[in-house]
Amino acid sequence: MLRLRAIYPCSWRVFQFRTCSCKPLISQMIKCTDEEQVFDLIKKNKATFSEKQVECAFNILWQFQQQRTSFLKNVDCIRDYPHFLTLHNLATSQIEFMDDDTLVNVLYFIQQCAPEAHDLLVEALVIESWRRLERFDINVLSKFSSCLANQLLYYSPLMGKIADIVHRNLETIDDLRSLSVLMVSISSLTSQRFQQQLVNKTEHLFDTIDSSQVNVARRIVQFLRNIKYSYYPLLERCNKVFLSNMNHLDLDCISKILSLYHSLQFHSFEFVKMAKKRLTEMIPLFDHPDGFVKLFVALGPMAGPEEKKQLKSTILLMSEELTSQQALAVMSAMEEMESRNSHLIKKIASILHKHLDDYKPFELLKITQTLTFLHFQSKELFVKLRELLLRYLKISVIPSEIAILVYALSILPSSNLCEVEISQIEAVLPQCDLNDLNGFATSVLRWIHYDRKYLDSTTGKQLKLLQKLDHYGLQRLRNSNSLNLLWKELKSLKGDWFTESLLEETVATLLRLMDEINSKNVAEIASFISRTNYLNTLLLDRIASVVVQQIEKIHPFEILGIILPFSALNYDPPQNDEFFRICIQHLNSYLSGLEPPMLVFLGFSLAALGYFPEDLLKAIFNIKFLSKMDSQLELLCSSLNRRVQFRLMELNRAVCLECPEYQIPWFHDRFCQQQYNKDFECVLDKKKKPLPYGSHNITLGKLPEMHWESNTQITGSRLPPGAERIALQFLDSRAFCRNIPHLKGKSAMKKRHLEILGYHIIQIPHFEWNSMALSTKEARMDYLRERIFGEGKS
Fold first, then answer.
1. Could you tell me which residues are beta bridge partners of residue 726?
2. Which stretches make up the RAP domain (predicted)?
């Protein structure tokens, strides 16, 4: 009893205003220690039960459920009590007497205690609530919206009515707790303008909540995730709430926050570090799959070797008890962990196989992708997968679902589509967005690639399908008249089909709509351009102009994305000095708030352009920063870990070569040797004749053995008078922009560094080396002689 009161101190407050006649029975119910006692009171007093007592009974029963671990079993247990139906009927008869608060509370509790698909009491309560909707206060309205969300009525007219009420009364709402609940519930029905109004209101009210209000902060982040808006000022404030309450966060809360951050691509290493410590402490606390699977999914990807071993051994022991959804969650986590534990993979795969009929199309795709990534082989399982995917495909009429099914089929070994299935795809193409079309095209290209040796009629059909995909993709781009709507489809596009068939038209469409580029979308669009490797100066000039004019509306976190295309594509906009000066100044005011990986990427991107901001470099090249970065690298996936270290090495080299006055030490000797030992080099005397190699060469990685002269030139071993060092760079297609033979930033920086080291650079571009003019060995030898020695044909 004392425990119940401690956990739910609000019970007395909830019912303190009840009439005197209600109080004795309510007091008795609050003193109950189990469901049996509550139902015994209902049985004895059903003739006089009031609406307040009905509310209290449901509340107490719900509280008992929250104290137990196996929730669903206990819910079933409640419904099995003979007098649960009595309580149910009492509630139905009392609806018209309930005040607004009681009405919605009973709806909430009955949903929790008797979650049946079509409960008549729930229907009656919803109808009565709809009738009273306009008079609900903000607290009651928020709870009612949550009840509708529990019924998955996100797109219902009733939820639309709630959204309208919130929109009309937004200025007068001053309760962020209630508003945050409403924001999550109505997020699917909000326009972009309304979304921004809600974000602004949330910022205005944020300081009115106590720093311990974790649930409010979590709902704010959930709302941002729902509307796909990584609004950094709010995310940072919510993150501070989570950090200050970490010791009180449970497994569910930490798991949800990590998932939300992942969806929003918001990185807080401080939160991850503290969450990892907290979750690691929880490992001995869970001995049942319900809790341990959540722990495995949340902790596994960031756990150290010992923790991973412990997690895997425990989940293996529990494997026989896993449900279909738990097995899928474990397998997905193993993919993220890059697990190679064949015994565990085989065990979880067998559970997936057993439950394969229970999974939905998108889950079957996930299973297919994960098993392929983990190199799992099972002919029997893959045959069953193919049968299920084809079965779903025959009855599906939703374009996005058909695209998922086709994509999953294309991953499976020895899988192909017949003419009937190809015709089914063709029928839905006019309804597809760019993401669906891209999914279809990726699948078709995969089949064509594997089936080239069988040029049969099916492959011919696939080629015709590919042409139709090109047509509808181009048509959708040409018909686009809103950048914001287009961007929802465009931002995740990638792959060969997009690059070869749609990229040029995409750039043309962005040019047509570039007046809509603003402070909210400029960073994402800039990042997208950098990924395409397509240089369009007008687009980049527009991006630079928006940044210069609206820098105060741009968060420092977004500067990296903005700089990337200029750095990657080696382009200076007309107002380059002002543009980069403003970006650097904006960063300098926030250096302490940026995570080490982002600082490294920023430093490298600016260095590629020839900018070396001293404050930024001093923030990176110090013992405290490097120690912090080392601890964070442990939390990154292996590929990102390597990329951060690689960029730090390149930045270190660039600063040592181009800014010796900063006196930043060189500590990547082995890296430089590995990189530059790939360059072909030679030494020529003043008559352009080669000198013996060895005594005159410099080891390109040995920067510490060189010294800086007064003019900052690097000197290595001395050469005979008039002699020069020659470095040949063979430049493949990756060294150039996709659409024009313009050298990209990284290759240009490499050339600059070799020149500083005293080399004369001769670059051999792939489009010259692979041209028809150089199709013979003799022609290539003549070409090299001319480039190196200045000679004509021999």
1. 682, 760
2. 726-786
